[in-house]
Amino acid sequence: MPGKKNRNKDGYGALLLSALKTGGQGIFEIAEREDGFIAASQWPSRYFGGHSTWSKRERRAMQRVKGRVLDIGCGAGRYLLYLQEKGHETTGIDRSAGAVKVCKRRGVQRVLLRPIEEIGKFKPASFDTVIMMGNNFGLFAGFKKTKRLLRQLDRITSAEGQIIAEAVDPYATTQELHLVYQRQNRARGRMSGQLRIRIRHENIVGEWFDYLLVSRKEMEEILEGTGWRVKEIIPDKGPGYTVVMVKTSKV
Fold this sequence. Notes:
The chain is of the alpha/beta class. It has helices spanning 11-20, 43-47, 56-63, 78-85, 97-106, 143-156, 176-187, 216-223; strands at 29-33, 38-41, 69-72, 90-94, 111-113, 127-132, 157-168, 194-201, 204-205, 209-212, 228-234, 240-247. Strands 5-4-3-6-7-12-11 form a seven-stranded mixed beta sheet, with helices on both faces. Strands 1, 2, 8, 9 and 10 form a five-stranded antiparallel beta sheet that branches.
């Protein structure tokens, strides 16, 4: 109906539902930053790629997974499907209803509509490994929030618990547009790599959310006092890297 307002604000979910039909081929992810910067990426095809299409860093990260797994921001469920096949007891969570639908249609056994802010709802010692792939360390959103949620992850994981998280170094850029945004962030009392973005798909515009990019040094500073420490960093050629965290009580 002409002029009717579209109330669906799950831009990411709409993107995944469209991409489900093609395996992500021919579908672009449109991300808009609060300063007007817009980026189009071919990430959707990666969301549906099988293990053989993954990067060396992703495959190395999955080799370190053990026990019961929580996938935060599970998206289209590619890691959950792989880990299920390997015999792991898995749980996926995502704040996108569309993402949850896609996971279920693809055969993910247990997936919940739940944002990262509600991880405290899980019982103590529910998981042995928490994965935050696809640069999902960014879902922590900001310095104080990250520290608070890491303490909750300490509670809901076993004594041998670990977190495997992908992150991006915001300083690995020379583009003035991004450097200006980083300076504006610092002037507002925010971390340099703290982004405020939203996802668009066709006529559906997602809600604004914060997303955090951090250097390795900033990662160490954030972990202080949370019960976690860096055990290993799996590097990459670009600005992305993967961190394996274990509890500070574990020698």
